[in-house]
Amino acid sequence: MRFVTAPIILGSVLLLTACGDKPLHDLDARRNSPDEFLVLPSKPLEAPENYAALPEPTPGGSNRTDRDPNAEAIVALGGRPSGTGIPAGDGALVTAASRYGVEGDIRESLSADDEQRRKRAKIFANIKLFPVDRYAETYERQALDPQDVSTAYRRAGVPTPSAPPEGE
């Protein structure tokens, strides 16, 4: 009797542990938790030098401790958040980057394409017998092989950095 129950227990333990690993990039949007990436930490509070010179409060509006992620990103990349338009030194770069045209609604069109791709992938989503990584499965065709890309650039005469050996 012990010889029969031991493989059954071992097999059931292995099956249960295989079901426990869930990747961080889960594409299931039906979760009930808040989106943690929408929470912005505020700047530290400071005591003003003159309390009479403080601006009027704006209920429901912004205050001095609110962060502006777009402006912070511009400053981190070496730009000026208050600047408008393209700086004179970057005009040639922008012209070269937009030489084949610029789509004004690129974010919306990419979002629509991505939504269509996920809808097509969802048709067969419920037929899986074992848990699979939906993220890797959905974007598998868009993944690049770094060795192939490096070889193609080297053949074209583009100086490329050394790549790790294949299989690592």
Strands, total number: 0
Give the rounded overall mean pLDDT.
Answer: 78
Helix-strand makeup class: mainly alpha
Helix content: 25-40%
- Mass-distribution shape: extended
Distance between the termini: 46 Å
**Proportion in β-strands:** under 5%
Which consecutive residue ranges, at least 5 long each, have pLDDT under 50? none
Radius of gyration: 26 Å
Q: What's the tally of helices?
A: 6
Major β-sheet profile: none
What keywords describe this structure?
168 residues, mainly alpha, 6 helices, 0% strand
What does this molecule look like?
There is one protein chain. Helix content is about 40%, strand content about 0%. It has a domain at about 105-155. The model has no long low-confidence stretch (mean pLDDT about 80). The protein has about 170 residues and is mostly helical.
Q: What is the secondary structure topology, with strand pairs?
A:
Elements: H1 2-18, H2 69-76, H3 91-97, H4 106-123, H5 134-138, H6 146-155
Summary of the model, kept short:
By secondary structure, the protein is mainly alpha-helical.
